[in-house]
Write a structure and sequence with these properties.
35% of the residues lie in helices and 17% in strands. It is built from nine helices and ten strands. The radius of gyration is 19 Å and the shape is globular. InterPro entries: NTP_transf_6.
């Protein structure tokens, strides 16, 4: 309650009830417990419910999910930093940070040409005016990664570098759906853990170091396995 730190804080005050217009809707973190709860009450929500509630509370993100759904691509999700960064920002109390890429992943064995991905990217860029879209058909990505053919989008994500990165979301049947081959524990516990199927330990360590995740999100914990 003393001098404000050099963060995005306007004031510190005690209140009897939570204020309106919170950054992430009705989601907040209790300081006396590690649980995430909602503005509606003190009942903790599970990770899947929290993830869905977060994206439903963000009009811009929901608009992007619905746009990608309109492409009618099979097993299609927006994944990687689109989910990971936003959740880690939320858990740290940060505003949503800018992304380097918006990673759209799908699975179509009938057309694995890179040219098709580029056409889809260009369509998304044209509609949104955002040049950060990156579209990758996971039915061909095994060739770049020197793996056996992937059998689905979820299977492909299981070969990604970190468990918290191997999470995708999509809008389907008027609700948020999640693709997470390793679950959501590491994402919400803020664990930076190598995926079991990604065997290059050196690359994993160098990637985390180069991205400076531990400095950007100081509550993260590196898990060496």
């Amino acid at each position: 309650m003393d001098t404000l730190p050099q963060y995005e804080l306007e004031e510190i005050r005690l209140v009897d009830s939570l204020p309106d217009n919170m950054n992430y809707g009705g989601l907040y973190t209790r300081l006396d417990t590690p649980s995430i709860i909602t503005k509606k009450g003190d009942k903790p929500v599970n990770d899947a419910e929290l993830l869905k509630t977060f994206f439903l509370s963000q009009a811009d993100l929901l608009k992007e999910l619905k746009l990608v759904e309109s492409l009618n691509l099979p097993e299609c999700y927006i994944a990687a930093g689109y989910v990971r960064n936003r959740i880690w920002d939320m858990l740290h109390g940060y505003e949503m940070s800018d992304l380097n890429d918006i990673d759209v992943v799908y699975y179509n064995v009938e057309d694995i040409t890179e040219a098709t991905d580029i056409l889809i990217e260009n369509r998304l860029i044209e509609v949104t005016g955002n040049e950060k879209w990156s579209v990758k058909n996971q039915a061909r990505m095994h060739l770049r990664n020197n793996n056996a053919p992937y059998q689905s989008t979820s299977h492909a994500l299981s070969y990604w570098t970190e468990t918290a990165t191997a999470v995708g979301v999509r809008w389907r049947n008027n609700e948020i759906e999640i693709c997470s081959p390793y679950g959501l524990d590491d994402l919400f516990q803020m664990h930076v853990r190598r995926c079991p199927l990604f065997e290059d330990v050196h690359f994993f360590r160098e990637r985390v170091h180069a991205k400076k995740w531990l400095e950007r999100w100081p509550l993260l914990k590196m898990i060496e396995t």
